[in-house]
Amino acid sequence: MDMITLNSLRLNYLEELRQIGMINASTQLEINARIKATCNAIERGLGIVKRGAEAVSSQEETR
């Protein structure tokens, strides 16, 4: 499952919770912002790991 699909599922789930009265609009926005920030941090971390792996691979090739 890719990030676009996860994002869509998250938005739909939060909207459903708001519609049935489990959360209010303000809480929906707050939760959404926290999840988005977490996803962004994960993507940045994965990018760092990927670049590190590429650097190690490149060094091994030059040996």
Question: Explain this structure to me?
Answer:
The protein has 63 residues and is mainly alpha-helical. It contains two helices and no strands. Helix 1 runs antiparallel to helix 2. It is rod-shaped, with a radius of gyration of 18 Å. The mean pLDDT is 88.
Any descriptors?
rod-shaped; 63 residues; mainly alpha; 0% strand
Brief summary of the model shown:
By secondary structure, this protein is mainly α. It contains 2 helices and no strands.
How would the blueprint of this fold be written?
Layout: H1 3-19, H2 25-62
Helix pairs in contact: 1-2
What is the overall number of helices? 2
In whole angstroms, the N-to-C terminal distance is: 37 Å
Give the strand tally. Answer: 0
- Integer average pLDDT: 88
For the report, how would you describe the main beta sheet? none
Query: Which stretches of 5+ consecutive residues score pLDDT under 50?
Result: none
Radius of gyration: 18 Å
Portion in helices: over 70%
Categorize the overall geometry: rod-shaped
Strand content: under 5%
Order of helices and strands: HH
Alpha-beta classification = mainly alpha
